[in-house]
What we know:
50% of the residues lie in helices and 11% in strands. Strands 3-2-1-4-5-6 form a six-stranded parallel β-sheet, sandwiched between helices. The longest helix is centred in the middle third of the chain and has 22 residues, at 83-104. The termini are close together. By secondary structure, it is α/β, with parallel strands linked by helices. Helix 6 (133-142) links the parallel strand 2 (124-129) and strand 3. The chain has two domains: 6-16 and 106-250, 3-Layer(aba) Sandwich (Rossmann fold), CATH 3.40.50.1000; 19-104, DNA polymerase, domain 1, CATH 1.10.150.520.
Amino acid sequence: MSPIKLIGFDLDDCLFDSTGLSERARIKGLYAMIDLGLKIDKKKATRILGEIVREYGSNSSKHYNHFLRRLNQMEENVEFLSYNDRYKYIAAAVMAYHEEKVNSIQLYDDVEESLIRLKDLSIKTAIITDGIPIKQYEKILRLKIDKLIDLVVISDEIGIKKPNPDLFYYCLKKFKVIGQETIYVGDRIDKDIIPANLNNIYSVYLHRGGKYDRYQIDMKNQDNFKPDYEISNLNELFDIIDEINKKVTIG
């Protein structure tokens, strides 16, 4: 067994608050419609939009379309909107949504420092993430971490999607390392911890409080589901590296 040579990271809700940013951006879009003249109470509008996000999923690109259709069909006290008015409101919402996402995206406080420390230790870094490549690269560039990461592996770019363990094996092959020389940090048991474990990669569950942060110690009832480590701050990662490397030295 060799010392740790590679650290992999998930992107969304691991390196930045993707869940919180999306929620804030959706509300900004909603309020932009109201500011433009849509006659509905903000509290009621927020409740309806929340229902739509739960029903259609947080990744849907049609939240505002469904919102206005629902108002037209279901809300008796809301003025019926013409076709032109609906798309005017949608345009305003989309503009506000993207403006918030562009202006407010930022790393968690512990990320940049940790990536710099890993570079100083000559440990390679990778991002392994699902998603549309242009959108994921846009996040990485806006977060200004492209020069701090040695490799970006995006599922849609290579045709392998989490939780397929081959996505993680692909990354190992690119760096010519084995699982026991690698740590992977993620916030989901199904898409991060299990495929890492299946590649004998040291798995680290990072608690950020995002929408998938539901893992509790008392849920550890199957070996594949157990992360090797749990942390709430990336600074804790360096103690893990030291612990693993000491085992190698003693061994």
